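dumping this here so i dont lose it
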C-alpha cells in the first residue's frame, strides 16, 4: 500500500457514498458503494482470508482512490450504477448488453393514433407496452396489429383531408382515415381494441371476430368471412409465441440463476398482462458470490429500464434486498416488491427461469471453442471470458491504396456478417501505426454515433453496423500496434476493451500474443494457439483480398481514363451500364458501341485485349 492510499484511508468519512479505485495510469478499475465509506473501503486493505482472488488481484493494482459522499445509501447505489455504466471498470461485474429494450407505442393523443416501435417511454401522452427482447418480434407484431385492425402506418398530417386513399386501403390494411372513410369515433374504437388486445384481453377480440366471421358465412359473403379468418390466424400467430400459464392479467419479471462449473447463468422472463413477452440470458464468471451477482443484475439491469413491473420474482433474497426495493422505488417512481415465492405458480415460474438459465448455459459451453476462450481468459489475465473478439489488419503496397480490415469472432466462431472494411482517409503516407489508430478510432466513434441514434429512435436495429462493442481487440502486429489500439480506445473514451497484439515469426506465421512489452507464450496452449492463429490468418487474408480489389479498381479506373475518347463523363456512363470496371474490360466491341461511338468502343476493346 503506497503513501497516497495510506493518507487517504485516514481521511475517509463516516458517511454513505461511492468510492473509485484507480490504477497507476489513472484508470478507474472498480466502483463501489458504501453505507459508511470509512468502514467499507478500509476492509479492502486489511489482511483477511475472506478476500476472493479477484479482490486480492484488484488491491494489488490500486494506486489511488477517490470517493463521493451522498445523502443516503440508496443515492450512493444510484450513483454507483451511473459510474459503472460510464467507466465500465475492469473489476466490476458488468452487464454487456446495454441496449434499450423495444416497446410498442400507441400515440393515443392523436386524432387518428398510430402503432410504433419505440425505445423510449418519455412521451407521457402516449401508451406503451413492453419491454420486448427482440425488435424483430415487435415489428412483426406491429405489422400484424395494423393488418388485423386496419390501423394507419403513415405519419401524414391528417388535420387536412387527403385527395385520395393510399394503396394500404385497397389491400385492406388501413381504414383510410386520411380521406375520412372512417370517423374519428370508429377509428378510436379500433385503437381501443388494439389496447385491450395488448393488455391481454384477447378472448373478447377473438370472440367478436369469430361471431362476425360466422355472420358473413351465413350470408354467403365468403370473401369477407375469409378476411376475418386471416385476422384470426394472425392473432393466433401472435398469441402462440406468448403462451404461458399465468393467473389473471399478472405482470412481473421472473429471475432464475443457475450456477455452473465456470459461469453463473441468469435468465430474466418478462411477463406482462399474463403474457410472456420474451426472456433474456446473461452470463457471468464465478468471480463473485451468487448474492453479489444477483445484486448487480438488479442494480444495472433495472437502473435504465423503463416500465418496471410492480413485482420481481427472485430465486433468493440477499442482504441488499430492502435497499434494492428503495432503489427500484426511486427508479420506477412507485413501489416495487422483490419476492421469493415458496409455493404455487409463481414458484413454478422461478423454477422455469432457472431451467432456462441452465439450458442457456449448456448451449454456451457446448461451443467447441469454449476451452480455447477459457485458456485465453486465464493466460491474458482477463476479467471475463471474451464473447466478441475483433481482429484488425492493415494492408498496402508501397504505401498506395492503404486499407484496414476488421474481422469478428463471436464465441470463437467467425461472424462474417459483422466483418467491416475501411479505406484509410486521414493518415498520410505509409504509417502502419497511425492507420491502425485511425481504423479502430473510426470504428469506436461509429459505435457512439449509433448508440445515440438508437437511444433517440433515429435508427432501426437492423441498420446497426457498429453498435456491439468487443470484449477484446487483437491487432496484427507488435507493441506499437497495441499502443495504437489503446490510444484509439482512450480517444473514444471507451475503457472496457482489452487490446493485445498478434506477432508473427520470420515466416509470417503467428508466433505469440503480446502486450505490456511482453509475450505470453500462447504456443504452450494448443487450443488457444490454434484459435488465435486461425483468427490472424483469416484477418490477414481478408485484408489482402480487400486491398487487391481496391488496387485493381484503382488501376483499371486509371487505365480507362488513359484510353483515347474516354473522359470522366464517358467513364461514368459506361459504369452505369456495366456496373463494374471488370465488366467493361470483358465487354465486346458491339456491346461497347451501343453506348459510345464505334471508334471509342474499338479503342477500349483494343486496349484491354492488346496482349491476347
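and the seq i came up w/
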Amino acid at each position: 500500500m503506497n503513501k497516497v492510499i495510506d493518507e487517504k484511508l485516514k481521511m475517509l468519512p463516516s458517511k454513505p457514498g461511492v468510492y473509485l479505485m484507480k490504477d497507476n495510469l489513472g484508470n478507474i478499475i472498480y466502483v463501489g458503494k458504501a453505507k459508511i465509506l470509512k468502514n467499507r473501503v478500509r476492509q479492502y486493505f486489511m489482511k483477511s482470508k475472506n478476500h476472493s482472488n479477484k479482490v486480492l488481484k484488484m488491491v494489488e493494482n490500486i494506486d489511488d482512490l477517490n470517493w463521493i459522499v451522498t445523502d443516503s445509501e440508496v443515492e450512493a447505489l444510484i450513483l454507483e450504477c451511473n459510474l459503472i455504466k460510464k467507466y465500465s471498470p475492469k473489476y466490476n461485474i458488468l452487464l454487456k448488453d446495454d441496449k434499450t429494450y423495444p416497446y410498442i407505442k400507441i400515440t393515443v393523443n392523436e386524432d387518428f393514433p398510430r402503432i410504433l416501435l419505440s425505445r423510449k417511454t418519455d412521451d407521457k401522452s402516449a401508451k406503451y407496452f413492453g419491454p420486448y427482447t427482440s425488435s424483430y418480434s415487435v415489428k412483426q407484431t406491429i405489422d400484424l396489429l395494423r393488418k388485423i385492425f386496419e390501423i394507419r402506418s403513415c405519419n401524414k398530417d391528417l388535420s387536412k383531408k387527403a385527395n385520395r386513399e393510399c394503396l394500404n386501403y385497397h389491400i385492406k390494411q388501413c381504414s383510410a382515415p386520411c380521406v375520412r372513410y372512417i370517423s374519428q369515433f370508429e377509428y378510436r374504437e379500433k385503437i381501443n381494441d388494439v389496447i385491450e388486445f395488448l393488455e391481454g384481453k384477447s378472448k373478447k377480440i377473438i370472440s367478436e371476430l369469430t361471431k362476425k366471421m360466422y355472420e358473413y358465412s351465413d350470408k354467403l359473403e365468403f370473401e369477407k368471412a375469409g378476411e376475418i379468418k386471416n385476422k384470426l390466424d394472425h392473432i393466433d400467430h401472435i398469441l402462440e409465441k406468448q403462451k404461458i400459464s399465468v393467473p389473471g392479467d399478472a405482470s412481473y419479471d421472473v429471475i432464475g440463476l443457475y450456477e455452473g462449473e465456470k459461469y453463473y447463468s441468469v435468465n430474466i422472463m418478462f411477463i406482462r398482462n399474463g403474457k410472456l413477452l420474451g426472456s433474456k440470458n446473461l452470463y457471468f464468471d464465478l468471480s463473485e458470490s451468487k448474492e453479489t451477482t444477483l445484486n448487480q443484475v438488479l442494480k444495472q439491469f433495472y437502473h435504465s429500464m423503463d416500465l418496471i413491473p410492480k413485482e420481481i420474482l427472485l430465486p433468493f433474497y440477499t442482504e441488499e434486498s430492502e435497499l434494492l426495493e428503495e432503489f427500484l422505488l426511486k427508479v420506477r417512481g412507485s413501489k416495487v416488491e422483490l419476492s421469493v415465492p415458496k409455493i404455487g405458480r409463481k414458484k413454478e415460474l422461478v423454477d422455469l427461469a432457472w431451467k432456462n438459465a441452465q439450458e442457456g448455459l449448456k448451449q454456451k459451453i457446448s461451443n467447441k471453442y469454449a476451452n480455447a476462450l477459457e485458456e485465453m481468459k486465464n493466460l491474458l489475465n482477463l476479467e471475463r471470458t471474451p464473447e466478441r473478439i475483433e481482429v484488425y489488419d492493415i494492408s498496402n503496397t508501397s504505401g498506395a491504396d492503404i486499407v484496414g480490415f476488421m474481422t469478428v469472432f463471436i464465441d470463437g466462431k467467425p461472424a462474417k456478417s459483422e466483418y467491416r472494411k475501411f479505406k484509410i482517409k486521414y493518415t498520410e503516407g505509409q504509417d502502419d501505426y497511425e492507420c491502425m489508430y485511425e481504423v479502430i478510432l473510426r470504428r469506436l466513434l461509429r459505435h457512439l454515433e449509433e448508440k445515440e441514434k438508437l437511444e433517440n429512435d433515429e435508427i432501426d436495429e437492423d441498420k446497426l453496423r457498429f453498435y456491439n462493442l468487443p470484449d477484446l481487440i487483437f491487432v496484427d502486429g507488435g507493441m506499437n500496434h497495441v499502443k495504437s489500439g489503446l490510444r484509439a480506445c482512450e480517444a473514444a473514451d471507451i475503457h472496457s476493451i482489452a487490446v493485445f497484439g498478434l506477432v508473427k515469426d520470420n515466416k509470417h506465421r503467428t508466433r505469440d500474443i503480446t502486450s505490456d512489452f511482453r509475450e505470453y507464450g500462447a504456443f504452450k496452449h494448443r487450443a488457444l494457439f490454434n484459435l488465435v492463429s486461425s483468427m490472424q490468418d483469416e484477418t490477414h487474408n481478408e485484408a489482402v483480398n480487400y486491398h487487391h480489389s481496391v488496387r485493381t479498381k484503382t488501376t483499371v479506373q486509371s487505365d480507362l481514363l488513359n484510353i483515347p475518347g474516354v473522359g470522366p463523363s464517358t467513364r461514368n456512363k459506361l459504369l452505369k451500364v456495366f456496373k463494374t470496371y471488370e465488366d467493361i474490360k470483358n465487354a465486346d466491341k458491339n456491346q461497347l458501341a451501343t453506348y459510345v461511338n464505334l471508334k471509342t468502343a474499338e479503342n477500349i476493346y483494343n486496349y484491354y485485349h492488346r496482349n491476347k
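The longest strand covers residues 275-285.
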